[in-house]
Design brief:
about 290 residues, mainly alpha
Amino acid sequence: MQRLPGLSMAVGALFVSASAVLIDLARVSPGTASFYRCLLALPVLAPLALRERGGRGHAAGGRVMTVLAGLLFAGDMLLWTAAIEEVGAGLSTVLVNVQVVIVPLLAWAVDREPVTRRFLLALPPLLLGVVLAGAVLESGVGGSDPVLGTIHAVLAALCYSGYLFLLRRNSGEGRTLRAYLLVTVSAGACSLVVGAWWQGVELAPGWAAIGWLALVALFGQVLGWLLVALSSPRLPSHVGAILLLFTPVGAVALGALVLGERPTPLQLSGCVLILTSSCMATMGHRPARES
């Protein structure tokens, strides 16, 4: 992993891409899925985090930022899980990954990092891609409510972007595994509380659902996000953003193969616009200088 961070990042993104299909197969509420994927990941994450050596312990401010990142991660999971049924596993994952443009905007607004002309030119086709992928201009497409699903997925993308931004901003403490454990605990607690209020949380969803959610925890929460978290500090930010686009590509492919999802031609063209616009935008960014 030390020598091949790009490969590790790509593999991690592909592991994460399986989450949407597995959650769809679990057939549970957003709160149940989000809570259990965090809970079932803890038996693996906790021993790894406790064995981690090196780096400095997080200061109080750093812990607050990490908990806030976990709350945003919970928002991302809850909204995105709702969007899976409403717009489809593959398309919901494509829509959420507009984060590759939102994160640079956050960096510009908060840290005054400059944006390139290439980035600004990519925004109009990206927004058009969101409209097409969400089937806003069509009727009779797959998913229970494509328009509402698009809204939920875009809101999830905002939470996801905030999570990635805070995680990257607070990554200098040197304890990646311990920080990710705290993110997972706070995200799980938030998912339980908010999920109980929004569509409910089943504490005993059945063994079949728990089995699917255990696979989500293994592939998405543990293998996928750990590979992403450990590899991203070793890659330029624009390279990491592009490699994360393996997630929506994998999700669309798995949604078609496993769930039989068939996006319309306009939805597929929206996916292509989102992916190509995101690549165009991120390839124009230079990695931030290390202090």
